[in-house]
Amino acid sequence: MSEWWTYRLSDFLMFSPRTYWRLIELYNRDFWPLHIAALMAGGAALALAASRRAGALRGMAVLLAAAWLWVGYTFHWQRYATINWAAAHVAVAFGVQAALLLGLGLQRGHLNPAPAGAGMRTAGWLLAVAGLGLYPLAGWLAGRPWTQAEVFGMVPEPTALASLGLLMISHGPQQQMRFFVLAAIPVLSLVLGAATLWTFLD
Amino acid sequence: MIGLGSWITFNVGNDRAAREQCAEVMRHFFEAGGRLIDSSPMYGSSQGVIGEGLQQLQAQQRVKAPPGGSAAGLPASAGAIFSADKVWTSSAGAPQIEASRRLWQVPRFDLLQVHNLLAWQEQLPLLQAMKAAGALRYTGITTSEGRRHREMEQIMRGHRIDFVQLSYNLLDREAEERLLPLAQERGIAVLANRPFREGALLRQLQRHPLPTWAAEIDCSSWAQFALKFIVSHPAVTCAIPATSQVAHLRENMGAALGRMPDEAFRKRMAAYVGKL
User: pTM of the entire structure?
Assistant: First the structure.
């Protein structure tokens, strides 16, 4: 891409904000009331992460993997890719994340229930609560209808946000490498989501 | 003179209501005498939305056409629509072009352009071969936002092309210096993209009242003011504003009617906007 320095973020946005929010609305309509089950699964994952028992942490990994797989396929691959050709690649990344969660999360003896530091746990709780509880309200607070709410386990941003929080709660200081591996794709997803929202404001 | 772009506005995915709206925009476009629609594989679902809209309008025409004539909504023959698309890949262009043609549901494209000059050394010969074989009427190249003008000029001088597409509007006038005169000199048609800077220019202008002297060129809105400036340049063949709203479409098409500014008036228009 020549003259790359002349490009703005908005130059890469190929759809209007209206089209994006309609996509979310139609997606929500197609799958309602699965959102309730998704939020319950998220709450269960949070309880499991907080319990710090090895078996519970495996359960958390399975629930998160299911969420990433679902969002990657039904949102990114089947729907978002119809207006954003890059979404097909992001869908693959979501599949990789699901595989990582299952692969690393279910490994025997790999889950050390040693607690995360207090700061890490607090930050993790804040992110998890934000992803599970506050994010669905964000659209309404911004003036968008309830039909366009973004819910954990259904769309990328609250899923990534809550996942990051759960990983921070459940990973002790001995597990930094594994944490970074599992946190990389959620962070990337959040960056992409933030960039998209930023261009909506541009 | 006034075509229809499809960047962003027609990329509506599988939203049925939005697709119907785009088809309605196309219907009004054709009824107002519009012909050229421009798209690209880069524009997401836009190509498919256009193809579906064309099919819908043709179906309506078959239902409503009086004996021996054509109904409103679509030109009497598919050949009257000027289909302009692009090749946008650094890999083999032919499969992408065929995929685009299927989405448009047209027998062939009128114009294919190398989008943003991507791999033009490979794609331009492909387009020229297609033209020689009768699979294409015109070849072209595109750029936008003032990028790669030098390279575009080199291609215009060194290769036989029929169209160039570039950004040209009341504020982005760099093309006046070399590319537009060169296009005129070599008989290359010019499509002007970003006539409103994707709406940003209009939003700026609409903070101010339309000057009363705009009525001297039969302008009733800033959109028409902006479009008349563009299409009155002797080198410009067509501007391609994009919209998903019928009201805006009608307003844009009004720029093709009435009096056009001459060179002195164009200078006045540019100077006025430059001071806002």
Answer: 0.91
